[in-house]
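Incident review: delayed structure delivery

Summary: a single-chain prediction request sat in the queue longer than the usual turnaround. Root cause was a stuck worker, restarted by the on-call engineer. No data loss occurred. The affected request and its eventual output are reproduced below so the record is complete for anyone auditing the incident later.

Affected input:
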Amino acid sequence: MDQAGRPGKRDRAETLVKGSPKYAVVNEKFAEYFFGGAAAAIGRRFGFGGNPGTKTDIEIIGVSKNTMYRNVRDQIPRQVFLPYLQQDFIGSMNVYVRTDFEPGRMFRSIRETVKRLDNTLPIYDMRSIDEQIDRSLLTERMIAMLSAVFGVVATALAIVGLYGVMAYTVARRTREIGIRVALGALSRDVVWMVMREALLLIVIGVVIGLPAAFALTRYIQAQLYGLTPNDPVTISMAAATLIAAAALAGYIPALRASRVDPIRALRYE
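Output delivered after worker restart:
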């Protein structure tokens, strides 16, 4: 009502819409599930309720594309879009605006425009699509970050362990290496002798680890979005990184072994 007690623009709009025939727009999944397709759904009627006497007084006048509803990982639901003023319980409303402007600038412009139209309308929780997607993937990104941290820690422990094993092996074979060098073995021969053992450990780890990784990926499939659990590029890059890091861990003791002084090595106990 306005100050004179006469119906305002909103009251007249509500009366007009509520008294008109009921229409709805449904998404493709709704149309496919109930009517077999979008073309067959146009002009059909439906209603809300489980009783046999439920009125089917809502006519379908359009079919929209399928879209996510709450977050990007949910299954696409069957959706119905009704006129706002024809709903029995009117609550909040979500409005989407497409723009090339920076979000902060656009938010200010929207607030100013709505204030000019009706300064009693509350506007809150404004955010861009990118921010909305970030919010919906917050848990997944936190899990991914923790997994990355644990992966780095596990890789570091594996490298340290391999380095320790190879360093211990070289220390035990110091006399043997000294004899080989004294008899004319080249540095590259000593390096290759030690690296063969390191590469053998790496190959055993890859042979055991890759099948185990493929078997365990099904347990994390529910946490992935837009990725297959057995993505060959990701697994290949991860395996190559581990092999390179492990080879480096084995190469350092091998290089140190190639520089052993034969005289000191022969006296080594």
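Verification: The first strand starts at residue 22 and ends at 27.
Action items: add queue-age alerting; document worker restart procedure.
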